[in-house]
Design a protein that fits this description.
This protein is an alpha/beta fold. The protein is built from 13 helices and nine strands. It has two domains: about 220 residues, Spore Coat Polysaccharide Biosynthesis Protein SpsA, Chain A; about 120 residues, no CATH class. The protein is globular and about 60 Å long. The N and C termini lie far apart (about 60 Å).
Length: about 375
Amino acid sequence: MPENTSSRRDASGSPAAKAPTVTVLLSVYNGAPYVRSAVASILNQTFADFEFLIIDDGSTDGTRVVLDTFADPRIRRLVHPTNRGLSVSLNEGLARARGRYIARQDADDISLPERLGRQVAFLEAHPDVAVVGGQARLIDAAGRPIRARMLAKPLSRVGVRFKVMFDGPLIHSAVMFRHALVRDGFGGYNLAWPTYEDYELWSRLTEAGCPMANLSDVLLEHRHHAACITCTYDPLAAERVRNRMRANLQAICQCDDDFADWLDFWTAVLFAKVLPPPSRSGPALEALDRIHRRFTQLHPEPKARGEIQWHLACTLMTAFHGCIRTRPVTALRCLARALRTHPAATLSIAWDSALRHLARLISRRTASVDSIARPITHSSEPSL
């Protein structure tokens, strides 16, 4: 396995001996358009006691050329001759990392300068917490902000436990976790999950009772673009996620209910599959009500109630957006339930959605005007 060891030196030029507090782990495959800003965001952290392990997973674009421009001594690079997949690369990174904590970084995201310092401080102050994440600001391919309050992640351990029944409770590119625990205690990432590997790992940690939390701080700019791994539909991945969600629901709710009506509906929403007919939405939403009631019975803490209601409303609003075009009756049922559950969350999410829709309309109108204006400009030029 080729490794660039020329950067494994301290500032004086001597070989590094002391293990760093943090290993930042980045795996990249054909990430040339964005990897420069991702790497720079880590090198510009206010917390400096880290090594930066970058795995080029068989890139065939200009990724290697971009990475060659960085000469920071904290960088270690591994190069795969062919693409092996994210889970394989991350496990190799865990095997080679020297840090006490692992901070994940994706090649198209940007970590804000205080990220590592805040997460290290939290884990040092909370030795029982296995993983800490944070909030993210969604950006598009050009780096423009996208309003998306549904991206908010739960802060409390109970909130994370609730969220994992429906969705990823942490943003993978914004997490820091205890290296030895994940590598030795859980064997790292599951190689049977080439995508959604983070959700599978958080599910196993939840199942084992390992506390996880998120900071309220925005630590990351999370880029959404067409080339994202999880932007394409994979029926095998959808089935894996459905089965894992069922296991999470049964374990967390401590029951044998298979929640089939809800899972059929919810996975169709998440993976943009053909939605069940409106007659099936009633049983699906009734199953969701059962899940919520059971969870609040098991976790009656008053502090967690508002957070749970917020994320339940987010789940319902995700369903609303997934149904509005093809199943408007079902969408309205989801909206009504969301309003009853948490009016403020529902209205703020709806407002964000309206603003995004308006921005798209303006963008299309501008593009349309430009396409009309261009030929007119050209036709006014003299013929040569």
